[in-house]
Design brief:
This protein is mainly beta and 226 residues long. Helices cover 14% and strands 43% of the residues. A 6-stranded mixed beta sheet has the order 10-11-17-16-13-14, with no helix packed on it. The protein has a 5-stranded mixed beta sheet with strand order 2-3-8-7-5, with no helix packed on it. The longest helix is centred in the first third of the chain and has 32 residues, at 3-34. The N and C termini lie far apart (111 Å).
């Protein structure tokens, strides 16, 4: 075989290899494009005691708003439904099963490929302070546990209305929480078993809240309205 024939043969082999490779790439693209584009979704997810639930298929999230009466670490699934063909391998995601949503719960749904979903819960708390001679609503800062109220002054009296303030009601936690005591600026502790109570709130006063066996301390500042 001449050198010229060998060179021609090598060029032919290179061309055949290139054609075969392009065919494999084309085949791979065709196969990928032919895969179903179905999305594995929750269509319904509800727990007992919820106010609402929102499913976002774009972000693969379920966000549940809970009522105040339930325990976020002891929820029970009421209804769960999936899009057609979706599989869930997590046995905990089933009607009647317990789920702890203290932190976001991760679960994988599958249909030809996997989709990672996040289930989370929030539990809004109604907080308030109701006092005699109070102007407007209390301003409450849950993150710092501080409360600010404004009180009308005693007209024609030298006694500051905050020094003898009647607190008719107070709620700083979930419905099952209790205000159990209050402490004045000198460290004197007074037990609270029910409202109303009359307190000297001229200076900063602290309130202790008990909820689920744990306590937290809140600070109340009463300001004159004028």
């Amino acid at each position: 075989m001449t050198l010229q024939n060998c060179s021609a043969m090598r060029r032919g082999l290179y061309i055949l290899a290139a054609v075969a490779a392009s065919g494999l790439v084309s085949c791979g693209l065709d196969n990928d494009m032919s895969l179903p584009k179905n999305h594995a979704d929750f269509t319904v997810f509800e727990v007992f005691g919820q106010v609402s639930s929102k499913i976002d298929v774009n972000s693969c999230t379920v966000n549940i708003v809970l009522g105040e009466d339930v325990y976020v670490n002891d929820l029970h699934i009421k209804t769960v439904q999936f899009s057609e063909g979706t599989r869930c391998q997590d046995p905990a995601i089933a009607e009647g099963r317990k789920i702890d949503l203290t932190s976001p719960y991760q679960v994988t749904l599958s249909i030809f490929r996997d989709f990672k979903w996040t289930i989370s819960a929030e539990q809004p708390v109604e907080r308030y302070v109701k006092c005699d001679k109070m102007v407007g609503d209390a301003t409450i800062f849950p993150d710092t546990r501080k409360i600010s109220i404004k009180v009308k002054p005693n007209v024609g009296s030298a006694i500051d209305s905050r020094s003898n303030l009647v607190i008719n009601d107070m709620k700083l936690g979930l419905k099952r929480s209790r205000i159990i005591s209050t402490t004045d600026m000198h460290g004197n502790v007074q037990t609270i078993s029910s409202f109303p109570v009359t307190l000297d709130c001229f200076n900063v006063r602290r309130f202790t809240v008990e909820q689920d066996g744990e306590t937290s301390e809140w600070t109340l500042i009463a300001l004159p309205s004028e």
